[in-house]
Design goal:
95 residues; mainly alpha; 3 helices; rod-shaped
């Protein structure tokens, strides 16, 4: 039993700590960018709703709200992909 405990402390614990550390950094990065994107979206919605009706209708016909949503969605996907690949590259390689 003592050899099993020393094995776990010497090999499995550092790997588990590294995995949890990498996943924690990925989660913090994702949450930070999610907060930034939400505040940017709220800012856009607040200012868009304050426009005069004719200008808001013209923007709607031009597709500006949809374009803004596409840009935010693509940016969020890119940030999520970058943080995921950065997190996975820090994990130890399985053999």
């Amino acid at each position: 039993m003592a050899t099993l405990w020393t094995f776990l402390l010497n090999s499995a614990l550092p790997i588990a700590l590294r995995v949890l550390g990498g996943l924690g950094m990925g989660w913090v990065t994702y949450q930070g960018f999610q907060t930034a994107f939400n505040s940017m979206k709220d800012f856009f919605i607040a200012h868009y709703s304050g426009l005069p009706l004719t200008i808001a209708q013209l923007f709607g016909l031009a597709g500006i709200p949809e374009a803004f949503s596409m840009i935010l969605g693509a940016s969020a996907m890119r940030i999520a992909y970058i943080s995921l690949t950065a997190t996975l590259s820090k994990l130890p390689a399985s053999s």
